[in-house]
Each structure stands twice: as structure tokens, then as C-alpha cells.
């Protein structure tokens, strides 16, 4: 029986990887009505990668709304959480972080150790139990083709979803938790003396984009969920299985443009895209300029970070911001006729406890 289960999992993984290699799935919806404005193979079952964290965040927002957890509540870090593969904060077993820090870590760095720790808190100490709760919640939202097996999105052959289901989840995050949606636009936050920047490139390259989440594993490809608002029209878009960061960004921008056009919203010129996975950075040492090439594909991280932008998000007097300046030597790709320079500023986080409005 065990051999049969193992063989079934192997076949599932090989079939999904082989069937959809190089093929994208995408969809864009009106966030208010749920009307589908553009789509391309939206019902293929695929690996969500770190888009899984959108459901982890939905569950956290739901628990905050119910009062079963609080933003400043301590989240214990287990050995299991600490050994999660990157991206991660590097949490140490026996240490703690707050619920709000965990939320910010998921949104910005897509930290797998923070996701696991938060999932264990919400799942009564068990990540598998939390994954079962996630799947149950998915069914309640109408995500009929989605199954979760962990809180982070690290590879599991049985953890599957579709572009349509993720668009449904994104709509619910926007409409069910308007008091929490602002977290997705946080450019960076300070954790233990270091600034953690946001991975989401759409925040800086697409007019009106204000969230949500990136995702990448070798099996899943480059995934992205984005919400953008123009002229009081909010759209949610999903791209799964892109071959690169640049391809998923362009695909997302194109489908959102089609969606806004279908809604009668005038187009907006796009700025340049900074593709971090093809970046070379300069460092000066002893009067010499040293060129540092980007990581090779063989050592590619599970989540690919891209340069953040200096945007602000305010919540009850607390300011989360920041971005490091863009350094020389970056390769850029143009996706529009109008080019604006990339700028960034650095701000400090205000001290003090955060409060929460219940709506």
C-alpha cells in the first residue's frame, strides 16, 4: 500500500511537471463582481508555490477578525518551522515573533519559516492540521480544485490549485478583509535590526497595483497574483507557470491592461521592469570596482526577490517602509514607451504597539 501511495505521488508530480512545462495559466477578474475579463487555461491544476501563503494569510486575518489571535501575540518557533528551506527569516528554535511580524514576513520576503510558525499557531501546534483547515476553507470559498498540504507552498506533489481558484481567493482577501489588505503594499519592514524588502515587482512597475504575492519553485515555475485599482475599478489577476520573473511580470501587466480595457478604463504608460535574476551589482573594495553576478540557475532560490520601491503604508500610526537604493549595473527590460527613473528612500519604523479595528 505504501509503495502504491509513493508511486501515485511520483506519477502525479511527473505528470504535472511534464504536462505544463513552458505553459502558462492566467486569469483576470473584476474584484467586485467576479466577472472574468481575460483567461488562458485557468483550470489547469498546478503547483501554487508561495501563492499558498495567500491562504495562510486569509486564515490569519480570519482569526484576527474572530479575536482568537492578536497582532502582538507571540508566535513560537518550533524546530520544524526553523528548518524550512529558503526563503526564510532564519528563525531560531525556541525564539518568538509576533503575529504581525509573521504577516509582514509572508507578504514581503515570503518567509517559509514564518509561514510554518504561523500555521502551527493557527493549527493548534500542527502544520498538517493547519493545512487541512486551509483546504476546508478553500472549499468554503468555492476553490473546488485546490488542496493544501503545508502553510508555505514548499513543494508537495499533492498541493495543487488553479489560476481560477487563486483569483477567487484573491477576491475574498480584498473584499472580506479590507482592514488588512494594506499589508500587501508594504515596501519593507524592520525585523531584528534589518530591513526586509518586498519581493513583488508589480508594486513598482504597474500603475494602480497595490498587492499581492509572488511565488516560485522549479516545479511550479514563476507565479504571481496581483490586485490593481484604477478609476475605482479593482481587478485581480493570476499568472502561473511563467518561465522567468520578466515573463510573468509582462504577462500580468498585459492581462491587467486587457481587463481594464474591457472595463472601459483608459490605459496608463508603464515604467521599466528591474529583473533581479539577471542583475549584476557593483561593490567597491580598496579602490577597485568588483562586479558581482547574479546567482546561477543551478543555485536559484525558491523565491526570487526584486528591488523594492519607496512606498508607505500606514496602520494606526505605525509606518512600515523602506527600500534600498537601486545600484548601478542592473539590467532592465522595457515594457512600455514611457520610462521613469527608479528612486528609493529610507525611513525608520515608528516604535509603539499596534492596535486593530474590528469591522
Automatic annotation (TrEMBL):
InterPro entries: Beta-lactam/transpept-like (IPR012338), Peptidase_S11 (IPR018044), Peptidase_S11_N (IPR001967). The keyword Transferase does not apply. GO terms for molecular function: carboxypeptidase activity. Keywords: Carboxypeptidase, Cell shape, Cell wall biogenesis/degradation, Hydrolase, Peptidoglycan synthesis, Protease, Signal. Coiled coil: none annotated. Residues 23-243 form the Peptidase S11 D-alanyl-D-alanine carboxypeptidase A N-terminal domain. Belongs to the peptidase S11 family. This is D-alanyl-D-alanine carboxypeptidase. It comes from Acetobacter farinalis. The lineage of its organism: Bacteria, Pseudomonadati, Pseudomonadota, Alphaproteobacteria, Acetobacterales.
Amino acid at each position: 500500500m505504501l509503495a502504491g501511495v509513493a508511486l501515485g505521488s511520483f506519477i502525479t508530480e511527473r505528470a504535472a511537471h511534464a504536462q505544463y512545462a513552458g505553459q502558462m495559466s492566467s486569469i483576470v477578474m473584476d474584484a467586485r463582481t467576479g466577472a472574468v475579463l481575460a483567461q488562458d487555461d485557468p483550470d489547469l491544476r498546478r503547483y501554487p508555490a508561495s501563492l499558498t501563503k495567500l491562504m495562510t494569510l486569509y486564515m490569519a486575518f480570519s482569526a484576527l477578525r474572530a479575536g482568537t489571535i492578536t497582532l502582538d501575540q507571540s508566535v513560537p518557533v518550533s524546530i520544524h518551522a526553523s528548518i524550512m528551506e529558503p526563503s526564510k527569516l532564519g528563525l531560531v528554535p525556541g525564539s518568538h515573533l509576533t503575529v504581525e511580524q509573521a504577516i509582514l514576513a509572508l507578504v514581503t520576503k515570503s518567509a517559509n519559516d514564518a509561514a510554518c510558525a504561523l500555521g502551527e499557531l493557527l493549527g493548534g501546534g500542527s502544520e498538517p492540521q493547519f493545512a487541512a483547515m486551509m483546504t476546508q476553507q478553500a472549499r468554503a470559498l468555492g476553490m473546488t480544485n485546490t488542496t493544501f498540504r503545508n502553510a508555505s507552498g514548499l513543494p508537495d506533489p499533492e498541493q495543487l490549485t488553479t489560476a481560477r481558484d487563486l483569483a477567487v481567493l484573491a477576491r475574498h482577501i480584498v473584499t472580506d478583509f479590507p482592514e488588512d489588505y494594506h499589508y500587501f503594499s508594504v515596501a519593507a519592514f524592520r525585523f531584528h535590526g534589518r530591513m526586509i524588502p518586498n519581493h513583488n515587482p508589480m508594486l513598482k512597475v504597474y500603475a494602480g497595483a497595490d498587492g499581492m504575492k509572488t511565488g516560485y519553485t522549479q516545479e511550479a515555475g514563476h507565479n504571481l497574483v496581483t490586485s490593481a485599482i484604477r478609476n475605482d475599478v479593482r481587478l485581480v489577476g493570476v499568472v502561473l507557470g511563467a518561465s522567468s520573473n520578466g515573463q510573468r511580470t509582462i504577462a500580468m501587466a498585459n492581462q491587467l491592461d486587457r481587463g481594464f480595457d474591457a472595463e472601459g478604463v483608459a490605459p496608463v504608460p508603464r515604467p521599466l521592469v528591474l529583473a533581479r535574476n539577471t542583475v549584476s551589482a557593483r561593490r567597491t573594495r580598496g579602490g577597485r570596482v568588483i562586479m558581482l553576478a547574479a546567482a546561477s540557475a543551478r543555485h536559484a532560490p525558491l523565491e526570487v526577490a526584486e528591488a523594492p520601491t519607496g512606498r508607505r503604508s500606514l496602520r494606526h500610526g505605525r509606518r512600515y517602509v523602506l527600500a534600498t537604493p537601486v545600484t548601478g549595473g542592473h539590467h532592465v527590460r522595457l515594457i512600455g514607451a514611457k520610462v521613469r527613473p527608479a528612486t528609493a528612500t529610507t525611513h525608520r519604523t515608528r516604535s509603539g504597539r499596534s492596535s486593530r479595528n474590528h469591522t
